């Protein structure tokens, strides 16, 4: 598996963890351990997304940081990616 796919899989894993923690926190809003885990995974996800954007370009249109060129259109569209 190449580096881009590995990083994207890591981001997906963080997304899954965040969704699960979100659901848990909906019913246990005062659980300090879950709140801490949510913050930890959010930080890890943010770092992984930043790394992905720097190495491979934006994952979403709002992550485009190039003020001179709309780089979102440089890569295949999301449904064209494999």
Molecular structure report:
The longest helix is centred in the first third of the chain and has 25 residues, at 3-27. The mean pLDDT is 88. It is elongated, with a radius of gyration of 15 Å. The protein is mainly alpha-helical and 82 residues long. It is 61% helix and 0% strand. The chain has two helices and no strands. The protein starts with a helix and ends in a 26-residue tail after the last helix.
Produce the secondary structure layout.
Elements: H1 3-27, H2 32-56
Helix pairs in contact: 1-2
Main β-sheet description: none
- Low-pLDDT stretches are none
Q: Compute the gyration radius: what is it?
A: 15 Å
Overall number of strands: 0
If helices are DSSP runs of H or I spanning 4 or more residues, what is the number of helices?
A: 2
Shape: elongated
End-to-end Cα distance, whole Å, is 12 Å
* SSE succession: HH
- The fraction of residues assigned to DSSP E strands is under 5%
Indicate the mean pLDDT: 88
Helix coverage percent of residues?
A: 55-70%
* Helix/sheet category: mainly alpha
């Amino acid at each position: 598996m190449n580096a881009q796919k590995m990083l994207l899989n890591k981001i997906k894993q963080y997304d899954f963890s965040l969704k699960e923690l979100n659901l848990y926190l909906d019913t246990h809003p005062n659980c300090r351990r879950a709140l801490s885990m949510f913050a930890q995974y959010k930080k890890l996800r943010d770092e992984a997304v930043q790394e992905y954007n720097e190495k491979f370009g934006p994952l979403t249109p709002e992550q485009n940081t190039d003020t001179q060129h709309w780089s979102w259109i440089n890569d295949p569209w999301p449904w064209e990616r494999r």
